[in-house]
Design brief:
Blueprint (H helix, E strand, L loop, with lengths): L10 H14 L4 H17 L3 H13 L5 H26 L3 H5 L2 E5 L1 H10 L3 E4 L9 H6 L4 E5 L5 H13 L2 E5 L2 H12 L3 E4 L10 E6 L2 E6 L1 H9 L2 E9 L5 E7 L9 H16 L39 H6 L18
Parallel strand pairs: 1-9, 2-5, 2-8, 3-4, 3-5
Antiparallel strand pairs: 6-7, 8-9
Helix pairs in contact: 1-4, 1-8, 2-4, 3-4, 9-10
Length: 340
C-alpha cells in the first residue's frame, strides 16, 4: 500500500500550529466553536473553494432534496466544518480525562462491548462526521487500540498529531504495507482497529464502489482485513449535541463488506457511511473532494473545464444527470435544458 510522503520540514508553521492548539485548549470549547463557525459562515457567503466543492458534492449526493434545502445544507455544513477544525487544537491539547468529560451520551455502546468481548478483533469505521477525535479516550477504556494514519504534509504538524493521539493510548499504523501488517496482527489478537472509510485511497489501494449512487474510489483495505481475520465491523460517529458536549453513536455494519464481488463490497462499505451521514448531514465534511479520482478515461467533476462542450463526453453520465445536464439522446451531452 502506497502512502503520501511527509513534505519538507517547516519549523515555523509547526510552532505556530502548536501555539494555536495550546491556546485553543485553554479557551472555552464554545468560544473555539463560535470562532470556527464564523469562518465557515464567511466561506459559505463567498465563492470559495470550500463552498464550490460542498455545493457540487451535495448536489451529487442528495438530488432528492430541494434546491433551497441543499443550499441551506451547504451553509450549515461549512459552519460545522469550521467548528470541527477549531475543535481539533482544543481536543489535541486536552488530557484524556478532560476529553472523556465532553461525552454527553453513548448510543449503541453494547455493540462495541459485545464485539470486543467476542475476541475476534473489531474494525471501527469512523466517517468524517462530527468529530472523530473523541473516540480516542473512549477506546482507551477498552484497552490498547490501533488507527490507520495518513501522514500530514508538514513534518512538525504530523509529529504533533501523532503525539496527541498516542497520548491517549492509540497506536498509529501508517498507510503502508508495514502498517497493514500491524493492523492484521492487532485484529488477530482481538484488538480494536480504527479506519476512516470515506478517505480516498491511492488508486493502487482502492477500486470503485457506489457512494450515494455515484462511483467513488474506495479503499479495499476493509474488505481485505475482514476476509483475512473474521473481525467484526462497526460504524461510529461523535456529534455535537445541544448541550455543547458530544453524543457518541455506534451502528452495526451492513452485510457484504467482505463480499467476493469487489464493487458490491465497496458499495456496501459506502452505504454504511451514508447511513451515518443521514443522522446529521450538516456535520459531515462535504468540502472534501470525494469524487476527485475517476475511472480511466473520465474527467473529474471538480474542474469547470470538464463541462465544456469538447470535454463533457468524458464526464460520468450519472454526474451529468445529478448536476442538471440532459442525456445525449435529448439535447446532446454538454447542453443544459433551456429555461422557460
Amino acid at each position: 500500500m502506497a502512502t503520501r510522503k511527509v513534505s519538507t520540514s517547516s519549523p515555523l508553521l509547526g510552532a505556530l500550529v502548536r501555539m494555536v492548539a495550546w491556546l485553543s485548549a485553554r479557551f472555552p470549547l464554545g468560544f473555539s466553536r463560535a470562532l470556527g463557525r464564523g469562518f465557515g459562515r464567511i466561506a459559505a457567503a463567498r465563492q470559495t473553494r470550500l463552498r464550490t466543492v460542498s455545493e457540487l458534492n451535495i448536489d451529487l449526493c442528495l438530488p432528492e432534496w430541494s434546491e433551497d434545502e441543499r443550499r441551506r445544507l451547504v451553509r450549515r455544513s461549512l459552519m460545522e466544518t469550521g467548528a470541527t477544525a477549531s475543535e481539533m487544537g482544543a481536543l489535541w491539547g486536552r488530557s484524556p480525562e478532560d476529553l472523556a468529560q465532553l461525552v454527553a451520551s453513548v448510543e449503541g455502546g453494547e455493540l462495541l462491548d459485545s464485539a470486543v468481548g467476542a475476541g475476534n478483533g473489531v474494525i471501527l469505521l469512523l466517517p468524517h462526521l462530527g468529530n472523530w477525535e473523541l473516540f480516542n479516550p473512549i477506546l482507551t477504556q477498552q484497552g490498547r487500540f490501533f488507527a490507520l494514519y495518513r501522514s500530514a504534509r508538514i513534518e512538525q504538524i504530523d509529529r504533533m498529531i501523532r503525539e496527541s493521539r498516542e497520548r491517549t493510548g492509540c497506536r498509529m499504523a501508517p498507510a503502508t504495507s508495514g502498517g497493514v501488517r500491524l493492523l492484521l496482527r492487532a485484529l488477530r489478537d482481538g484488538e480494536v482497529v480504527v479506519i476512516l472509510p470515506d478517505q480516498e485511497p491511492v488508486k493502487t489501494a482502492g477500486d470503485f464502489g457506489q457512494f450515494f449512487g455515484v462511483p467513488a474510489l474506495t479503499m479495499t483495505l476493509v474488505r481485505g482485513l475482514l476476509g483475512r481475520t473474521g473481525a467484526t465491523a462497526l460504524y461510529g460517529f461523535a456529534l455535537r449535541g445541544p448541550s455543547g458536549r458530544f453524543d457518541i453513536n455506534y451502528l452495526p455494519a451492513p452485510e457484504g463488506l467482505d463480499d467476493a464481488d469487489v464493487e458490491v463490497a465497496l458499495t456496501r462499505l459506502n452505504y454504511g457511511v451514508e447511513r451515518c451521514i443521514r443522522h446529521c448531514p450538516e456535520q459531515y465534511q462535504w468540502s472534501y473532494k470525494r469524487f476527485k479520482s475517476r475511472p480511466e478515461g473520465e474527467l473529474t467533476p471538480y474542474r469547470s473545464r470538464s463541462f465544456e462542450p469538447e470535454n463533457i463526453q468524458y464526464v460520468d453520465p450519472v454526474i451529468l444527470r445529478r448536476l442538471g445536464f440532459l442525456s445525449a439522446d435529448s439535447v446532446g451531452l454538454g447542453e443544459k435544458p433551456q429555461e422557460e
